[in-house]
């Protein structure tokens, strides 16, 4: 039996219905409706019930024709109930490319028989620590607002909230007696903070982190946390991790401070981060200071869940079982001393990435240091391909979240395994002794492949694996949301969803990088698997080609599609993938030509031409769409400069270096590469042309291929490119080009299909 707040009031009068609807906890949801559906601000009534669990009922409002009532157990669930109505009945949705909720019919469709929804897990999680650098580092609150509405409506109730961490950390370090110089030599650049927070890197290249940045990010975080809370989400906030400036050892000579391991080939000065061991009393002091200051900044009870990672790609000082248990016991005790309800959230990537170190007894000891089973939440970070819960007896009883890792470095290639993300969570939930409590998205970068994200978040509301074919039909219908959607559009997505997005090869999951984004070389680019995969597991001719042809056919049958931003986005994206895959063939022909016995410098140049031609077509194509522009990324970065040119140049360097060299000397070269207009024309094309010229010249001179020579030459191109200012070079312009995307796609199909 449902007990509903305001039920009695409801019966009394229509005026009081409004009063019941405006339960203060629901103000944020009403504001969302006002923001996205202003024409329907009065149509929706939300009622919080006292029932247990996460469930909602959608029905037609009694006595109010055209009104819709959502009864729900929490504010987050109310948002999900609203979303279910908007998508299933209203046929509209909100996308990363924008909200189309305002296209809800003015006459609201009736629900008829009430619709019930129940979450199968209490936690719906979103973000990875590194998403805050690969995707959101330069976002304004407007961009956050769209993202948070997108999350809230899909029922996410546990988002990570890292923005502005340094503000509070700096206060804590000051209080501990460290100087500004001690601290500034520790902090990393505006596009690299995630890895400083993880203790992978310390310090900056390209200039120290300005205090203006720290202050602006802190102000932004206040807005983000407030909005998350208003929308019924519990932000997962940071805590003190133990990573400290080297100077901490001079100020506290007796403190237990060890040097962390070296990370990703960075020179010692930029890595080997000092780690204050959590059993040292100083750790608890700094933790208490951090949590208290954070509570003062954002509110005492906005969360009790803390993200805290000490060994992400960073192995412990010792593998001794009692040492590991001691570290986690000290860490957890410090959290509970500062917040008696604290729960420690751990990003479980370490157990996969450092699997040989993290044997089961070490994992058990480390997790066991936090007593009881309600003390932690572990993110099983890569559940779709490399789950760890199944080798750790469900994390030895600790609650954990089934997560999809996606978009390595924000790479944009098509990738997804819809089968794994529908059956996987349900099988895990039903496995004997399972302590799984949530599903979530832990993408490194949130770029493209939106269907994958939708499917997983929807799976949280279905106890059986979602039926993909019927799901895709309704997803496409609301994504393009035109009257009489041509069957060809559905057919395009049927093909993609059953092939490209049904990739069950465990060796190239998470993201597919296009080889033209990698530093040119004669070997090592094609068919890569593992952490930087380039292997394409589908037949382009039977998937991408017909999908693109069908989308273009759909547009010919209904020109209204041309005006749908998501349709234009998808056409550009599919054509992008076509050109990316064709580049592989052209590259292989170039290498074969270079290796052939009758090779001449002219034949190398001739074989190189198609590579440049594909990249040039690709740049022109991407230039038509604001979602595929280097200039958008750089403009976002410079936007934080307050008109200070030196600061703008600093921000631009950070933005450029992350997507290219990733480090002063190409330490993680091309890891966060992007398919963006402007990046292709000003960076990838010159790199490939240099490479082609190199092959032609050594052929002419009869010299052997020397990977160091060419690699050094290409590194210099990268360093010069990173130091540039956008807008000053030839062909560099802000914003979309204005070329006709449909004509371009026709040409691409004619040439490359
Ligand atoms: C560090 O320990 C030594 C030896 O126990 C002691 O003499 C010294 O006073 C301590 N220094 C500080 C700063 O606590
Ligand atoms: C840590 O490394 C730095 C150099 O990066 C060195 O100066 C310092 O002495 C080391 N500390 C310890 C405890 O090994
Ligand atoms: C940095 O870490 C590596 C191990 O990852 C170690 O060999 C090296 O000695 C460390 N350097 C310093 C200065 O601690
Ligand atoms: C936070 O919640 C606790 C109870 O869980 C309460 O005692 C405390 O007063 C609250 N703090 C604030 C500032 O609301
Ligand atoms: C682990 O550390 C404990 C406590 O310091 C020590 O007694 C034990 O011998 C160590 N075990 C190993 C295998 O080194
Ligand atoms: C943790 O290690 C410290 C320092 O070695 C020691 O004093 C403390 O007793 C240990 N705590 C536990 C719970 O083992
Ligand atoms: C866990 O599941 C994955 C994916 O199904 C599988 O590859 C792996 O072998 C399993 N591990 C264990 C220990 O069962
Ligand atoms: C934690 O959960 C595991 C597995 O369900 C169980 O064996 C263990 O007893 C629990 N521990 C505590 C302290 O409740
Ligand atoms: C890559 O894999 C494809 C398909 O498995 C194969 O045809 C091709 O020869 C491979 N290329 C290289 C360079 O390994
Ligand atoms: C794919 O189509 C292209 C262009 O028609 C053709 O050159 C190529 O051989 C085809 N590849 C395969 C694997 O069928
Ligand atoms: C081309 O030559 C390189 C050595 O220069 C060799 O490693 C590579 O396997 C050859 N590639 C092909 C496709 O023949
Ligand atoms: C080189 O030889 C190959 C076969 O050995 C032939 O297909 C190709 O046309 C020749 N290229 C030139 C430029 O002569």
From TrEMBL:
<feature type="signal peptide">
    <location>
        <begin position="1"/>
        <end position="19"/>
    </location>
</feature>
<dbReference type="Pfam" id="PF12972">
    <property type="entry name" value="NAGLU_C"/>
</dbReference>
<dbReference type="InterPro" id="IPR024733">
    <property type="entry name" value="NAGLU_tim-barrel"/>
</dbReference>
<protein>
    <submittedName>
        <fullName>Alpha-N-acetylglucosaminidase</fullName>
    </submittedName>
</protein>
<dbReference type="InterPro" id="IPR024732">
    <property type="entry name" value="NAGLU_C"/>
</dbReference>
<feature type="domain" description="Alpha-N-acetylglucosaminidase N-terminal">
    <location>
        <begin position="29"/>
        <end position="109"/>
    </location>
</feature>
<dbReference type="Pfam" id="PF05089">
    <property type="entry name" value="NAGLU"/>
</dbReference>
<dbReference type="InterPro" id="IPR007781">
    <property type="entry name" value="NAGLU"/>
</dbReference>
<feature type="domain" description="Alpha-N-acetylglucosaminidase C-terminal">
    <location>
        <begin position="471"/>
        <end position="727"/>
    </location>
</feature>
<dbReference type="InterPro" id="IPR024240">
    <property type="entry name" value="NAGLU_N"/>
</dbReference>
<feature type="domain" description="Alpha-N-acetylglucosaminidase tim-barrel">
    <location>
        <begin position="124"/>
        <end position="462"/>
    </location>
</feature>
<keyword id="KW-0378">Hydrolase</keyword>
<dbReference type="GO" id="GO:0016787">
    <property type="term" value="F:hydrolase activity"/>
</dbReference>
<keyword id="KW-0732">Signal</keyword>
<dbReference type="InterPro" id="IPR029018">
    <property type="entry name" value="Hex-like_dom2"/>
</dbReference>
<dbReference type="Pfam" id="PF12971">
    <property type="entry name" value="NAGLU_N"/>
</dbReference>
């Amino acid at each position: 039996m449902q007990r509903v707040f305001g039920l009695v009031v409801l019966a009394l009068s229509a005026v009081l219905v409004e009063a019941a609807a405006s339960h203060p906890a629901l103000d944020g949801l009403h504001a969302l409706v006002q923001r996205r559906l202003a024409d329907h601000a009065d149509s929706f009534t939300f009622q919080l019930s006292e029932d247990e669990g996460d469930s909602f009922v959608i029905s037609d409002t009694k006595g109010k024709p055209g009104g819709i009532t959502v009864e729900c157990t929490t504010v987050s669930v109310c948002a999900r109930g609203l979303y279910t109505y908007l998508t299933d009945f209203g046929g509209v949705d909100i996308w990363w490319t924008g909200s189309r909720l305002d296209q809800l019919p003015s006459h609201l469709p009736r629900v008829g028989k009430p619709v019930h929804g129940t979450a199968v897990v209490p936690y719906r999680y979103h973000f990875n620590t590194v998403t805050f650098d690969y995707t959101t580092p330069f976002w304004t609150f407007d961009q956050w607002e769209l993202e948070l509405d997108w999350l809230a409506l899909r029922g996410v109730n546990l988002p990570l909230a890292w923005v502005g961490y340094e503000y509070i950390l700096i206060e804590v370090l000051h209080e501990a007696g460290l100087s500004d110089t001690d601290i500034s030599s520790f902090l990393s650049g505006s596009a690299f903070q995630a890895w400083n927070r993880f203790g992978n890197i310390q310090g900056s290249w390209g200039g120290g982190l300005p205090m203006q940045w720290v202050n602006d990010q802190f102000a932004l975080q206040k807005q983000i946390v407030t909005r998350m809370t208003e929308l019924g989400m519990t932000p997962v906030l940071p805590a003190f991790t133990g990573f400290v400036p080297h100077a901490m050892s001079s100020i506290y000579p007796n403190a237990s401070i060890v040097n962390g391991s070296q990370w990703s080939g960075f020179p010692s000065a930029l890595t080997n981060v000092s780690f204050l061991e959590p059993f040292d009393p100083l750790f608890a002091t700094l933790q208490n200071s951090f949590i208290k200051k954070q509570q003062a900044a954002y509110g005492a009870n906005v969360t009790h869940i803390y993200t805290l990672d000490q060994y992400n790609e960073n192995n412990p000082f010792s593998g001794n079982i009692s040492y590991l248990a001691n570290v986690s016991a000290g860490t957890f005790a410090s959290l509970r001393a500062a917040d008696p309800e604290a729960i420690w959230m751990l990003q479980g990537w370490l157990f996969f990435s450092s699997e040989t170190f993290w044997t089961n007894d070490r994992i058990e000891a480390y997790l066991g240091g936090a007593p009881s089973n309600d003390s932690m939440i572990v993110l099983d970070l890569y559940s779709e391909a490399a789950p760890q819960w199944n080798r750790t007896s469900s994390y030895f009883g600790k609650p954990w979240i089934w997560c999809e890792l996606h978009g390595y470095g924000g790479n944009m290639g098509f990738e997804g395994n819809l089968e794994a993300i529908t059956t996987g969570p349900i099988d895990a939930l039903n496995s004997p002794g399972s302590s799984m409590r949530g599903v979530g998205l832990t993408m490194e970068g949130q770029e493209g492949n939106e269907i994958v994200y939708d499917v997983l978040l929807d799976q949280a509301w279905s106890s059986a694996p979602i039926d993909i074919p019927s799901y895709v039909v309704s997803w496409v219908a609301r994504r393009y949301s035109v009257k009489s959607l041509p069957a060809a559009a559905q057919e395009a997505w049927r093909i993609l969803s059953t092939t490209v997005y049904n990739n069950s090869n465990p060796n190239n999951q998470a993201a597919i990088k296009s080889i033209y984004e990698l530093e040119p070389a004669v070997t090592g680019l094609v068919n890569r698997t593992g952490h930087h995969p380039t292997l394409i597991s589908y037949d382009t001719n039977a998937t991408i080609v017909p999908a693109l042809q069908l989308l273009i056919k759909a547009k010919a049958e209904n020109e209204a599609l041309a005006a749908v931003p998501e349709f234009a986005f998808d056409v550009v994206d599919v054509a992008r993938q076509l050109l990316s895959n064709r580049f592989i063939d052209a590259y292989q022909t170039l290498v074969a030509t270079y290796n052939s016995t009758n090779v001449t410098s002219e034949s190398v140049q001739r074989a190189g031409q198609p590579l440049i031609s594909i990249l040039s077509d690709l740049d022109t194509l991407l230039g038509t769409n604001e979602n595929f522009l280097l200039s958008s990324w750089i403009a976002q970065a410079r936007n934080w400069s307050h008109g200070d040119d030196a600061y703008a140049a600093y921000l631009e360097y950070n933005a450029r270096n992350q997507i290219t060299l990733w480090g002063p000397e190409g330490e993680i070269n091309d890891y966060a590469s992007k398919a963006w207009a402007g990046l292709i024309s000003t960076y990838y094309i010159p790199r490939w042309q240099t490479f082609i010229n190199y092959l032609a010249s050594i052929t002419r001179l009869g010299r052997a291929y020397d990977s160091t020579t060419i690699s050094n030459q290409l590194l210099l191109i990268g360093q010069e490119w990173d130091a540039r200012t956008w807008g000053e070079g030839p062909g560099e312009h802000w914003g979309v080009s204005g070329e006709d995307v449909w004509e371009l796609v026709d040409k691409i199909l004619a040439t490359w299909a």
